[in-house]
Every structure is written in structure tokens, then in C-alpha cells.
Amino acid sequence: YTQAKSLVFSKFGEPSDVLHVHRHSISPTLPDGAVLLRALAVPVNPSDVNTIQGTYGVKPRFSPLLGTPEPAAIPGNEGCFEVVSVGPGVKTLRRGDWAIPASTGFGTFRTHAVAEHADRTLYRIGGDRGTAGLTPTQVATVSVNPCSAYRMLRDYVDLISASVSAFSQDPTTPGGAWFLQNGANSGVGRAAIQLGALWGLRSINIIRERPTPEETESLKSELLSLGATVVLTESEFLDRAFSARLKEEFTRGGKDPVLLGLNCVGGKSASAVVKALSPRGTMVTYGGMSRQSFPFPTGPQIFKRLRFEGFWLSEWSKENPAEKRKTIDEIVELMREGKFKAAPVQDVEWSWETEEKTLRQAVQGTLDGFRSGKGLFVF
Ligand code: NDP
Known about the structure:
alpha/beta; Quinone Oxidoreductase, Chain A, domain 1; 2 domains; 7-stranded mixed β-sheet; 6-stranded parallel β-sheet; 15 helices; globular; binds NADPH dihydro-nicotinamide-adenine-dinucleotide phosphate
């Protein structure tokens, strides 16, 4: 029997109040089509906290089957697992492979899992090249943030053609369309910067000021080195002078349009994204980190003919399973080739002895700002 430990919750609330450790054992006899997994690395994403709080778009089902005193759910949507053993009838996975959940809601905050219908519910990582050159951290964080950034940059506006066509009209000046994003230091933001740079796109990136000017400058340089074209603080972005700067410094009087805005933050920052969009621009909202909503201003909507979209990876993945797989495979290969860096993480060691309090705190801390990286359970 394998001894396993999970984080579980039986009611919605703050992670530090409602999360508990549940210990149980797993039988060595696996059902048809199932595999036994061992966790290697599991990130804590903002949506995991929202799910535990009960404020996320989909509510988990509290199941009586986990062997907990009350029906419970295991939080966590992504993670890198190693296949420990394989039940009869499994075709795509072998002992020693690395796998990630194929869709959200898997419940990844646990040391071990039995995944039923493994050929359908898991992706084997790495294709013919296996896991050589990959780390559990990269694999654990590929399916949510980089995948979201990839789809948002590609599925709403054809920025690549827009960049090329603007450039070819005036080949003497490097130019072309821009995308602009707030929350640029988030996992999604950093992924968008890097993918954008790989695809030849120019980006204006908005970050929150750090506690000191030196830290702000250092973050700016870090994002520039990832491939950002311009990095500005929220106060530079919200300043009255920004409109003129956008026109004169960045867009050649509007010739290089800002066609896509990615909104991670909401509130005033989102309103400023709307203002910065060029005619026929599209704003895609995917997060609300400030917990503030923003108005859809009537004038710009009509006179600039703007488009407002919402992106939700979970639904997109259900509708496009084959594309999801391709997107992940492509990003994994970029990681392996050293062309794509995983976002920084703060490792939280999860061993048999780790106290419940430590694990709970790691989840609770996710929505604190100015962190050096998101929490990552390492096993
Ligand atoms: P990370 O944990 O990597 O980063 C969180 C970011 O939010 C940090 O950059 C932080 O800024 C910023 N932040 C926190 N509080 C505030 C605030 N009050 N105002 C402005 N910025 C703030 O996040 P992820 O990349 O994993 O996720 C970012 C957002 O995207 C979340 O809302 C998440 O739910 C959403 N998301 C949505 C998806 C979808 O399908 N719709 C898919 C993936 C993510 P700082 O760097 O300054 O600390």
C-alpha cells in the first residue's frame, strides 16, 4: 500500500481556515485504465484560492469517496506527476513517464493520485524526446499560464500579420502592431512577453511599482530581458502624459496600432487599457487581481469600434482539446530548447512530516502581492 497525503476542504472559506491534511493509503491493485501517480511539483494559482473561497466560476463537488469525515474536495488544477505504476489497458503511459492533468479540476494538491481513464485524463509529457532537458517546475506550470497567454495572443487578433503588414509598408522603421498588458509580471504576463517576442510582436507592459525605485528598475530590466519592448509602472501608465507618449514615443502618431489589450487587473488599470487601444482594438479580460470592475465607456466603444472579450482557459480547453494538447507540446519544446523560461516560483517542500499549517499558509499567501514568485509544492 502507498501512503498518501492530500489537502482537502469541506466548506468554502479562507484557505488558512478551511484546508486540512488528509492521510490515506492507496491499494496496489489498480482498476482497468488507471495509473498511480506521484506528485513532483504542483503550483498554487490564484484560481485555486478563489475556488477554495467559493468565488470561482465553477464550484467543486464535495465527494464522500475520499474517506474524509465530511464530503470533501482536493484543490489544485495543475502539476507534474510521475507515473509509478500502470493498470491494465493503459496505452499512452508507462512507469517513469511524466504526466499532467488534461483538464482542470483534477485536484493536484496531493502526494499521490490514482487517475482513472488515464489515456483520456492525462497528457504524457515530451513525446519521443521524453523528459530530457525538462524540469518538474517547467512541466508543472505549463498548462495554465503559458497556455492562456499563447491563446490570448493568437485567437482574438491576427497580430502577427498586422505587425508584418505595417512593417512592410514602411520597412525603414521597425514597427507594426502592439499588444498592451497590465499584470505584466504575472505568470501569464511573463509568458505573453516571451511568446510575443518569439513571434516578433511588440509589447507595452504595465507593472505595479515595487516598494523602492531600485526594485522597480530591476523588475523592469528583468521583463525587458525576457523580451518586453516597453515596461511602464501603473503610475506612468495612469499619468495624463501617457496618451502623448503612446502617440509620439511608441506608435508613430498612431501608425502602429495597439490592437490587443490583455487585462489581468481590472479597475483603473483596465480603464487605461481601454483608453490606449487603437480603433478596432480588442480587449481580452482574463483576471481581476485588483478585485475592481471597470466601466465599458460608451464613446470609445462606438467611435473606436472596440471589442471586449473574456477568456477562460477551462472552457476553451473543453472546446478545443486537440489544440490544447498541441499548445502544451509546443511550449514544452520551447522550454526544453531554453527559449521559454518558467515564471519564478517559491518552493514549498511537501514531505510526509510537513505540518498542515505550512501547507495551508503556502496556499493562503498566493494572493499577497509583491511576491518573488508563486508558491510551488515540491515533493
Ligand atoms: P501570478 O500569481 O503569477 O501573479 C499574480 C499577479 O497579480 C502579480 O503579477 C501581481 O502583481 C498581480 N497583482 C496582485 N494583486 C494585484 C492588485 N491589487 N493590482 C494589480 N495587480 C495585482 O498570477 P497568474 O499569472 O497565475 O494569474 C494572474 C491572473 O490571471 C489571475 O487573476 C488568474 O486567476 C488569471 N488567470 C485566468 C485564466 C483564465 O482562463 N481566465 C488563466 C490563467 C490565469 P505584482 O507582480 O506587482 O505582485
